[in-house]
């Protein structure tokens, strides 16, 4: 049974109880807070393993809470899953760029919520990858040091930008990256790339990956992620 602590920050009592019940049934220790101020206080005092954070909170909203959490050394490493209403794609992007790990959209099924929670907690145990470490996923091998990608032992002819995008995504399977985060990863070498051009680069990258292209998943209105095995 899980022993991790999860903080749920949600102002709608019925949703709060639904989340609390399903998490407790799975064996998690659950702490609840009805607003952003109490959520911050609980995060600082309890230091949970994960926070389920509603964005539409009275007073201090979820984005402000996330910003504070990631600003403070004691809480910056706590995993955060945002809980959002439909049509809040811009807030999702802002939250991910502030450091949130994932999001779920209301209305959601308990099974979907639990799968997201388990995935984020599982990734929490994985150390941050070495930027020069070889990445091996199924038939795909990426050698950062040699700037080389092999697919079924066949070398792919990737541009600098395509390589960096693939490296960014494949290094953290399951993680959602916004277009802005991808731009930052590529622009580090002073190569010109914009949010809009990321989409064109991904189209070209998928074409070169062929039957392996489905591993790069589009997260509508947000960005991209590499399929989790």
Description:
It is built from 8 helices and 12 strands. Strand 11 and strand 12 form a beta hairpin. The model has no long low-confidence stretch (mean pLDDT 88). The protein has a 5-stranded parallel sheet, sandwiched between helices. Strands 6-7-8-9 form a 4-stranded antiparallel sheet, covered by helices on one side. The chain has a 3-stranded antiparallel sheet with strand order 10-12-11. It is elongated. The chain has helices spanning 13-25, 36-46, 62-71, 89-98, 110-124, 160-170, 179-187, 195-209, and strands at 5-9, 29-33, 50-54, 79-84, 102-105, 135-137, 140-143, 148-151, 154-155, 177-178, 216-219, 223-226. 41% of the residues lie in helices and 21% in strands. It has 2 domains: 5-124, Rossmann fold (3-Layer(aba) Sandwich), CATH 3.40.50.2300; 135-226, Arc Repressor Mutant, subunit A, CATH 1.10.10.10. With 229 residues, the chain is of the alpha/beta class. It starts with a strand and ends with a strand.
Instruction: Provide the residue-averaged pLDDT.
Output: 88
Task: Please give the radius of gyration in angstroms.
Answer: 19 Å
β-strand number: 12
Helix/sheet category: alpha/beta
Pattern of helices and strands: EHEHEHEHEHEEEEHEHHEE
Gross CATH architecture of the largest domain: 3-Layer(aba) Sandwich
Principal-axes shape call: elongated
The multimeric state of the shown protein is single chain
CATH superfamily of the largest domain: Response regulator
Residue share in helices?
Answer: 40-55%
